[in-house]
Amino acid sequence: MDVRILHLTLKKEWFDLMISGKKRVEYRKPSKWIISRLEKEYDVIRFINGYGSDKPYFVCEYKGFEISKKSETINLEKSEIQVEKGSYMINLGKILEIGNVKKPLHPNQISNG
């Protein structure tokens, strides 16, 4: 069976919050493009930060989508998400794969030489 993959691009701020598990929903304004994508069925979502094969990415389970019934502001750490009524809320499941992500060094691993 072929895995059905939804490909989406993210800004670094949102990518980092998702990979850390702090952001579990991706919000998209309604557009012909996103509507045409979400008309299909998927198994996973592949999020990429930027463009190109060497860019950071992760793959997570796709848990469907909902349409926002109200406008609201969601605060995540130092970030704020403005969700408009009618926005698409794409639900993320467990992260299955992470690639091309530079892991920060622990202070004890940094050499001064």
Structure overview:
The protein is mainly beta. The strands form two sheets. Strands 1-3-4-7-2 form a five-stranded mixed β-sheet. A two-stranded antiparallel sheet has the order 5-6. The C terminus is likely disordered.
Notable characteristics:
43% strand, two-stranded antiparallel ribbon, disordered C terminus, 2 helices, 13% helix, 5-stranded mixed β-sheet, 113 residues, single chain, Archaeosine Trna-guanine Transglycosylase, Chain: A, domain 4
Mean of all residue-level pLDDT scores: 89
Rg, Å, rounded:
16 Å
Share of residues in helices: 10-25%
Report the sheet with the most strands, covering strand number, pairing sense and barrel closure: 5 strands, mixed
Structural class: mainly beta
- The total tally of domains equals 1
Proportion of strand residues: 35-45%
Distance between the termini: 51 Å
Overall geometry: globular
**Highest-level CATH class:** Mainly Beta
String of helices and strands: EHEHEEEEE
- Count of individual beta strands: 7
* CATH homolog superfamily: Hypothetical protein
Question: Can you count the helices?
Answer: 2
The low-confidence runs, each spanning 5 or more residues with pLDDT under 50, are 105-113
In the CATH hierarchy, the third-tier topology is known as: Archaeosine Trna-guanine Transglycosylase, Chain: A, domain 4
